[in-house]
Structures are given as structure tokens and as C-alpha cells.
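User: Fold this; C-alpha cells only.

Assistant: Input:
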Amino acid sequence: MLRNLAQPILLVFAALGLTGCVESASPVTQATPMEAMVKVGDQSQFTAMLQTLLDQPPGAFIVIEHPETQKFVQFAGSRTEGLLLDLPTHTLTTDETERARRLLQPRGATELQLGDDGKDQPSTFQLQFNRDAQAAAQLCRDIFQDIYQYPPDRLLRVSITID
């Protein structure tokens, strides 16, 4: 898990501002974004990209999104912290949020409230994968197929940002 809520909130803000480059995600350092288009069903490509995070210093992350709907999932990762899935609920419909709970909670995900009062505040689902890029990639595929209900041939934009 991330050490505190500040980092997942920064990931959420970085994803919200994402239209091609996320240099604004870090006010101190210049981020290096890399992008690719990958099909929902191409688990091997997701695995390779997530494996890339495991070779990076802390602060690297991947945002995987459908460019037209801006539905996304993100992973933070590094060689010292492993992989952490982060799925914010602010872009999910009520039905997608319920599907997310059914898919993620049995696998050990935690739903964290991002606001102070808890009621009607956005939340985020988080799940630690340690160094298991293959399991993270499989769940990523399941999120797009089961929660967002996209077909396997739907193209997604993958943005990797390395500080």
C-alpha cells in the first residue's frame, strides 16, 4: 500500500489532467511520459508495461484509459515498492462502482474514502500486487471487460510516466 493518501490523490489529479503529457503531476521534477495504444484483451502487452514499472525508482506510474470516454485505471510502481492498482470512483457510474466492488473486494482490494466527511465523497479502490505484473495485468483486463464492459478489441491509451 502507499504510505499515505497524498500519493493516490496526486495520481488521481495527474490522471484528470492527462491529455498526452503529465508534466504538471510533479511540480519539482520533469516527468518523462511514454504512450502506446493497446487492445483491452492484450494481456501480454499490459504485463510488459507493468513490468517496466518494476524497474523504475519510486514515483513512476501508468495510466490506462479509453481516450473517448476517459474511463481509466492506474498503477503506481517501482523496484522498491512493487505495483499498486488505483481505481478512483469519481469517473464510475453507480453500476460500474457496484461491479468494481464485486470484482475487486473479493481479491483483497480496499476502498479508501478520499474526502474528510466520508459521505458522498469520492473513493478509490487500491490493491497491492508486489512484483506480480502478470496478475496485475489480468486484473487490468478484467476491469476494462467486466467493470467498463469493453470488448477485447477496444483500443486503450497507456501512458507511462517516469520521474
